[in-house]
Design a protein that fits this description.
934 residues; mainly beta; Immunoglobulin-like; 22-stranded antiparallel barrel; TonB-dep_rcpt-like; TonB-dependent receptor plug domain-containing protein
Length: 934
């Protein structure tokens, strides 16, 4: 009974408090629901150009005083979730538009218009100091190309825009292979210029130089690129002595939507006396980009680009011996004629003929009395020998995940494949080569940790010179010691027969060549292709010319920005580890038994401090590098000062002491580039280890040539080669930048550099297995080498440059830049490769929007280069002066989010070269359809 009463009391009590509990619970639920409503308040909107009314993508929308924000998508729409009540202020900003602050008083769609403004003087850069700053406040000279510059450029390939920047030199070895540099020392395959793509060194792991745009960004995925002129190794590592280019791809959180661009064109339109061997040929370039922000945490992008065209072919027939054409010189060796490097003095054959037929003595003895008679095998021109099919396929995928708002994980992969040709010690035809670069990165507000690998596959690379020589030997040997027959015995027999009928030596030589060339397969014939494929399919280590490079690069970098901890200054520090795994199977390096590992360890720091009421910005950078090929570590320094004259005018001064370890090519290369001729590094591992110069001395090639003429051993001159050492440069720069009246931007500079242990090249020869000097009388008994080595003299370079940009209102813009570079104290014992004119200038004039709703735009550029001397491994000579004009006009289909562009490069079709031994480049005319490109 007591239990029952107790239960009744509990029931009564619960009945009394139930309404209170219900009200309280309901209140709590409503409170939480109200919090949920606040947490899920959403602001949506659309942003448009206030003049044209078209949508503006990639606009930054930031909630004021927070790190929360979004970007407009390709339709100009944005969506923000706020965690506090209204009102709230958002900041809308985009380069090329006036920044706008808007107070939002409640939820609902917002319609916002931004006013277009000039970008002159407002560009920001990152690579100059590794943090964001205005370009005109940079402590060193830097040039920048942004997305809108690419859209308005007359160049169908953004990479070729770089040649119009101040102080930049380029060498175009082929349509798919352009090498850039600054401040002289311009050559194809420049190992002293660094190219960084999304934080990754873009060099080929084995060759150690950037290979153009092969695995760079696709046309539609370039956010911006920045070019640092001159020494930049303090921030970007060894081998940045001539400059660094930093390229940044588009963030899929910011740049969203599907974009496509199709370019169809035509080139090889002959004009005047052009010796272009091809006729009008099609050019195709197709690019697609898809960026998608799945949600606030995850985004991705996919890029694909395919380019196909008929390449420019090198066709310089100038005799490298300087003795006239093939009908005037029996030893003729044309610059772009391959196989004619095989030559011999026919006097021993003449002596043999006289011994067999004494009656020929009256004919032969006068010839022997004249001295040597050098005769070259008949070579093949580049067209018909090397393929003219230029192709490039690139694909890229990137995935980004925001672990939290200030911490992002990134995984990306880029793959490139194609055909291209580049010039070095001979012409190299890269056929079906592959390059891959793969990255994993964690990026936070103050730090990043990045790891990536680059993998190279040289495909079916053909080394033009020796392949052609071996083709000649395959169809008819120069001399068969077993039978006594061969090309040269046949040549000499026909020569003597012709001279006996009264022909002059030169006329008889030409007839003898026709006779000895009987059976020579024509370039492109089935027999020729069969021989070429068989020789190019055998590795160089086995007597063929197949380039079998499978080298790889592994890199890990950690960087931390300590500024928020130290407060008094901007402080950035980082660590870097890199491993080259050289694996060419003996075709490029002495790695036939096993791969060679070369490691580099680096640490760097950069400190910036503003003083004098923030008018003076002082900075210092230090970098420590250690390379396992060399005993001593090296320290690189950069100090700079930027003084603010007024709000838009700055004076800059910098000093850089930069070291560069010899590249793997400069240290370890051992490549057959001609019959019995090697391109070589200067490491003692090769000099005395492989070539045995300590036993069989090296002589200058010039003295060997002299000895062959005089047969006096005293003419042979020894050349002392020592283990190659790192080179260094001390560089000073003084510059001034100013934005005048918001309409005129000027930049002027002067620089002076001193190079120590400068790495150049020298041609030497030795006779392995013997010290008998008479071995140098027989070309088959000695080997020539083009060897990298340190010059003893200090080499100085200096120059100056200026640029002016003028906003002419109504979207008209004019730009002009001028630069000049000089080499002082040239080391004449080396090939210096200072291949730049004493001055050059570029002019640009265009408009980014005019007419009804600013649908029309146009741009024209002109690049002028005077004639200048150019050195490269297989030839040297003068590059003629050139004035190249490019132009385009565009029309925008606003409703279709599309643009049609009609344009041309080198529109006057006046063929020009920018490298000796490289192809002449004619005009190309194209039409482009671009969808949703921004």
């Amino acid at each position: 009974m007591e239990g029952l009463l107790a239960n009744c009391n509990i029931a009564v009590m619960l009945a009394k408090i139930y309404p209170f509990m219900l009200r309280t619970t309901t209140t709590i639920i409503l409170i939480f629901l109200s919090f949920g409503v606040y947490a899920q308040q959403v602001i949506t909107g659309n942003i448009r150009n206030s003049v044209t009314k078209e949508v503006v993508p990639a606009v930054s929308i930031l909630i004021k005083d927070t790190q929360l924000g979004d970007y407009t998508n390709d339709q100009g729409n944005f969506r923000l979730t706020i965690r506090k009540g209204f009102p709230v202020t958002i900041i809308c900003s985009s380069l090329g538009f006036e920044t706008k602050e808007i107070v939002i008083t409640g939820p609902g769609p917002q319609r916002i218009e931004l006013l277009p403004v000039s970008v002159l003087g407002k560009e920001v850069v990152v690579s100059a100091s590794r943090f964001v700053q205005k370009k005109i406040e940079s402590p060193v000279t830097i040039e920048r190309i942004g997305t809108k510059d690419i859209i308005n450029s007359p160049q169908p390939n953004y990479y070729n825009m770089i040649q119009g920047l101040k102080g930049v030199d380029v060498t175009t070895s082929s349509m798919m292979f352009t090498t850039i540099t600054t401040r002289g020392f311009n050559t194809s395959g420049n190992t002293n210029f660094t190219q960084i793509v999304d934080g990754m060194d873009n060099q080929a792991p084995g060759l150690n130089f950037p290979i153009g745009a092969v695995i760079g960004l696709t046309e539609l995925d370039v956010d911006n690129l920045e070019v640092l002129s001159g020494a930049s190794s303090a921030l970007y590592g060894s081998r940045g002595l001539n400059g660094t280019m930093v390229m940044t791809g588009k963030d899929p959180f910011k740049y969203q939507g599907l974009s496509a661009q199709i370019t169809q064109g035509v080139n090889h339109i002959k004009k005047g006396k052009s010796n272009d061997p091809l006729g009008p040929s099609p050019y195709y370039d197709w690019t697609v980009r898809w960026g998608k922000k799945v949600n606030d945490k995850f985004a991705f992008k996919i890029n694909v680009q395919y380019t196909q065209a008929k390449d420019w072919m090198a066709s310089d027939t100038t005799n490298t011996r300087g003795l006239g054409g093939p009908l005037q010189d029996p030893g003729y060796n044309g610059v772009n004629i391959y196989g004619s490097n095989t030559n011999a003095d026919i006097n021993p054959f003449l002596e043999g003929a006289m011994a067999q037929v004494p009656e020929l003595a009256p004919l032969i003895e006068p010839l022997l009395a004249e001295g040597r008679h050098v005769v070259a095998r008949t070579g093949y021109p580049e067209y018909g020998y090397l393929s003219s099919d230029a192709q490039l396929f690139k694909a890229n995928a990137e995935f980004r995940y925001k672990i939290k708002p200030t911490l992002e994980a990134i995984v990306s992969g880029t793959y490139g494949q194609g055909n291209a040709v580049y010039s070095n010690d001979t012409r190299y035809a890269l056929t079906r080569f592959h390059l891959g670069q793969y990255r994993a990165e964690l990026k936070a507000q103050h730090w990043f940790l990045r790891a990536y690998t680059s993998r190279e596959n040289s495909g079916r690379t053909i080394i033009a010179g020796p392949t052609a020589q071996l083709i000649n030997e395959a169809w008819k040997p120069s001399y068969d010691g077993r039978t006594g027959d061969g090309w040269y015995p046949q040549y000499v027999g026909a020569l003597l027969e012709s001279m006996s009928t009264g022909d002059s030596y030169l006329d008889a030589s030409n007839k003898a060549r026709v006779f000895a060339d009987q059976g020579m397969p024509a370039a492109g014939s089935p027999q020729f292709l069969r021989l070429k494929d068989s020789i190019a399919g055998i590795p160089t280590s086995q007597g063929g010319t197949l380039f079998t490079d499978r080298s790889r690069l592994f890199n890990t970098e950690l960087q931390y920005n300590f500024t928020h901890l130290v407060h008094f200054a901007e402080l950035i520090a980082g660590l870097n580890y890199r491993l080259y795994r050289l694996d060419s199977k003996g075709s490029l390096f002495p790695d036939i038994k096993s791969p060679i590992d070369v490691a580099e360890y680096s640490a760097y720091a950069h400190l910036t401090k503003k003083v004098a009421h923030d008018k003076l910005s002082l900075a210092a950078a230090f970098r420590y590098d250690k390379n396992t090929l060399f005993a001593k570590p090296r320290v690189t320094t950069r100090v700079s000062a930027v003084f603010e004259v007024n709000k838009e005018s700055f004076i800059r001064f910098s000093y850089q002491n930069a070291y560069s370890y010899p590249s793997n090519i400069q240290a370890l290369q051992s490549t057959l580039v001609d019959y019995n001729t090697y391109a070589s590094g200067g490491s003692d591992r090769l000099l005395n280890g492989v070539y045995q110069f300590d036993k069989y001395p090296a002589y200058t090639v010039q003295s060997v040539d002299s000895f062959q003429r005089t047969q006096n051993p005293a003419d042979l001159k020894l050349f002392q080669l020592n283990d190659i050492k790192p080179q260094s440069v001390d560089a000073f720069e003084l510059g001034y930048s100013s934005l005048i009246g918001g309409k005129v931007l000027i930049d002027v500079l002067g620089y002076y550099s001193t190079w120590k242990n400068f790495i150049g090249y020298v041609n030497v020869a030795n006779s392995p297995g013997t010290t008998d000097p008479t071995a140098f009388l027989d070309r088959s008994q000695y080997i020539q080498y083009n060897i990298a080595y340190n010059g003893a003299e200090k080499v100085n370079t200096y120059g100056y440059a200026a640029s002016v940009g003028v906003d002419l209102s109504h979207h008209f813009m004019g730009k002009v830049n001028f630069s000049s570079d000089f080499l002082k104290n040239r080391n004449n014992s080396q090939v210096n490769n200072f291949n730049t004119p004493n001055y050059k200038f570029n002019v640009e004039f265009g408009n980014t929007g005019f007419g009804n709703k600013e649908r029309f735009s146009f741009n024209t550029t002109m690049r002028f280069r005077p004639a200048y001397f150019y050195q490269i491994g297989f030839a040297s000579g003068t590059v003629p002066a050139s004035a190249v004009i490019d132009a385009q006009v565009s029309y925008r289909l606003l409703q279709a989010h599309s643009t049609i562009k009609l344009g041309g490069t080198n529109i006057t079709n006046t063929y020009y070269r920018n490298g000796f031994g490289s192809p002449a480049i004619g005009g190309m005319y194209y039409i482009t359809y671009a969808y949703n490109v921004f």
